[in-house]
Design a protein that fits this description.
Radius of gyration: 22 Å
CATH class of the largest domain: Mainly Alpha
Distance between the termini: 38 Å
Number of domains: 3
CATH topology of the largest domain: Hypothetical protein af1432
Order of helices and strands: HEEEHEHHHHHHHHHHHHEEEEEH
Number of strands: 9
Strand order of the largest sheet: 8-7-6-5-9
Shape: globular
Structural class: alpha+beta
Strand content: 5-15%
Length: 388
């Protein structure tokens, strides 16, 4: 069968490209064709300007099938296809996690926690397939839902992305994600309190923190969780290679690498997340701390892979450009190329009417000069910044 015949055969399987499926600076998930079946752009092509995007919205057709390897979770696929927006999907996953963990805490027998948390875990994997950079952006900038549950979702996203770089198999990654989503089930109320707690911890608060890994393990076991790796990661996610962790003070090879990854992602997200009494740590300072200090506690290779996955300027970083503009990093482009940016304000700190997308590698005036703290509020939604 010739190429033309093959195109005709699959013509009826194509649908019009939708608004939320494509964005400047984001790779295409599908080959895109025109009405005659001629290929316009291939899967993986990164749109470089708004003119290209508008042409695809006007003329582009794509397959109704998800590319091989992209459909990790049917639940996330359904949510993403319904909205085309990973940030809305994260909101839905956060609400679902809150309901599941509350049911576990209340010892409800009307749910199947292991099955439901695994569904969320597969949704996290599909979300990272769909748009890893938007997922990282959410982990750094999304602060509009209850802290205990968004912290768990964002930590799970970080774990999935770094575990992929480590080439861990999908089922191992799923156990890590499930542990990330559930490891704080025994202290969600305390987490909500501590986000606004500026002073030293009381003895009762410290005891609760020390006890939560084992308590969480027992609650999950009682609720029907039977995955031994998941349960062991929950117990060990605050253990350290040097033996200075808790609850058992395990050291060296006794601490699972999967638990060390969760502990690192957990601490990183806590560092860069602001509190009512302080701003979040600058991303570059958090990554420096991982390189200089935390590598001794979790392992140098794991720390290096964590830093390598996020990059010098992870999506969600707030930066100042050579021309004075203020911007949000929205896309990584590789280790040797500067990231894609959404500029939000000019050199006089006057907000633009809409985000202006720049390539920091394209011109010297768009190169990054320094990093700024994450503001309490941005002039645009994350959906607008990422083009959804």
């Amino acid at each position: 069968m010739g190429a033309t015949d093959d195109q005709t055969t699959h013509q009826d399987d194509r649908i019009r490209v939708r608004q939320g499926e494509i964005a400047v600076g984001r790779p295409l998930l599908w080959d895109v064709y025109d009405d005659r079946g001629q290929l316009l752009l291939s899967r993986g092509y990164v749109l470089v300007n708004e003119r290209q995007r508008q042409r695809l919205l006007r003329e582009g057709l794509r397959s109704t099938a998800w590319p091989s390897g992209e459909k990790t979770g049917a639940e996330a696929t359904r949510l993403l296809e319904a909205s085309g927006n990973p940030f809305l999907t994260i909101d839905q996953l956060t609400l679902r996690l809150e309901g599941i963990l509350d049911a576990i805490r209340q010892q409800s027998t009307t749910i199947a926690p292991q099955q439901r948390i695994r569904k969320l875990g597969r949704a996290i994997q599909a979300l990272c397939d769909y748009d890893a950079d938007a997922s990282l952006g959410a982990a750094h900038l999304k602060h509009d839902t209850s802290y205990p549950f968004r912290h768990s979702i964002h930590t799970a996203l970080l774990c999935e992305l770094v575990a992929r770089r480590l080439n861990w198999p999908p089922l191992t990654r799923l156990s890590v994600i499930c542990a990330a989503l559930s490891c704080n089930v025994a202290m969600t109320e305390l987490q909500a309190e501590l986000i606004d707690h500026a002073g030293p911890l009381s003895d009762m608060q410290w005891d609760a923190i020390q006890a939560h890994p084992l308590q969480g393990h027992d609650m999950l076991l009682s609720a029907g969780v039977s995955d031994p790796l998941w349960l062991q990661i929950v117990i060990q996610h605050h253990e350290r290679l040097n033996g200075r962790g808790y609850p058992a003070g395990s050291r060296g090879d006794a601490v699972l690498p999967e638990a060390r990854l969760l502990g690192l992602a957990d601490r990183y997200h806590a560092m860069v997340t602001g509190r009512s009494y302080r701003a979040g740590m600058l991303v570059k300072n958090a990554l420096r701390r991982i390189f200089l200090d935390l590598g001794q506690e979790v392992g140098s290779r794991l720390a290096q892979m964590f830093i390598k996955e996020l990059g010098i300027y992870p999506p969600g970083s707030i930066v100042r450009l050579a021309n004075g503009e203020k911007a949000v990093v929205i896309r990584r482009k590789g280790e040797l190329a500067g990231p894609m940016l959404a500029c939000i304000a000019n050199a006089k700190s006057q907000h633009y009417a809409r985000p202006l997308h720049r390539d920091s590698s394209e011109q010297e005036q768009f190169s990054i000069r320094d990093v700024h703290p994450s503001p309490g509020a941005l002039p645009f939604s994350l959906s607008q910044l990422w083009g959804y």
